Amino acid sequence: MRRSGGVRNEFTFTGGVCKNPMALAVLRKLVEWREYTRRRDRLAIRWEDGSTMPFLGRELTLKVNPAHRGKPMLQDAVLLVGLPPGAGNEQLRDLAQGWLQQRAREHFATRIAHFTQEHGVAPKRWALSSARTRWGSCAADGSIRLNWRLMHFPVEIIDYVVAHELAHLRE
Fold first, then answer.
1. At 95, is the secondary structure helix, strand, or coil?
2. Do the Cβ atoms of 102 and 85 come closer than 8 Å?
3. Residue 74 main-chain phi, psi, to 5 deg
4. Which residues are CB-contacts of 132 (< 8 A; sequence separation ≥ 6)?
5. Among the four 5, 43, 104, 143, which has the fewest Cβ within 10 Å?
6. HSE value, Cβ hemisphere, 13 Å, CA-based, for 1
7. Beta bridge partners of 81
8. H-helix or E-strand spanning residue 8
């Protein structure tokens, strides 16, 4: 038995095995949380020169080049970003995410047009979303929203989300 932060924890172990169902549930949740944080940390993008980020199912390398002028530019599998020496990782993140959002606008417009022609259903309007927990949504007014972060996934997954949201318009 031990006290921790005003909470009394009492776990009985018999032969090295915990028999308390509440304790087992707590331990399971702790293991799940540890696995979740490890997975999240492994998948998180490090916004720094030389790191990688997923784009349409492949990996792009982020390359900061102070000599590069203008918007970020894709060259093969490298996203070239012009930033002055000493620029922070937040600036790299902002430029790279802005680039991703522009690519999302272009890509989603193409895919919406494709599925509209193929299935004869079109949204009244569509917009990008920055939702943390939804990839897409369809409103009663016939508009759809698509999360720009979908650009990290393969084209097939993006197509599924676009088609799924357009299918709601038939309902």
1. helix
2. no
3. -90, 125
4. none
5. 5
6. 4
7. 64
8. strand 7-9
Q: Which tokens in the block code for residue 11?
A: 């776990």
Closest of 57, 84, 86 to residue 160, by C-alpha: 57
φ, ψ of residue 60 to 5 degrees: the values are: -110, 140
What is the number of H-type helices and E-type strands within the chain?
3, 11
Identity at 24, one-letter amino acid code: L
- Residues 70 and 87 sit within 8 Å (Cβ to Cβ): no
pLDDT in tens, 14-73: 666 677 777 777 777 777 777 766 665 555 899 999 999 999 999 999 999 999 989 999
The token pair that represents 170 in the structure block: 């038939």
DSSP codes of every residue in 12-29: -EETTEE--HHHHHHHHH
- What lies within 8 Å, CB to CB, of 55 at 6+ separation is 79, 100, 103, 151, 152
Cα separation, 148 vs 107, whole angstroms: 10
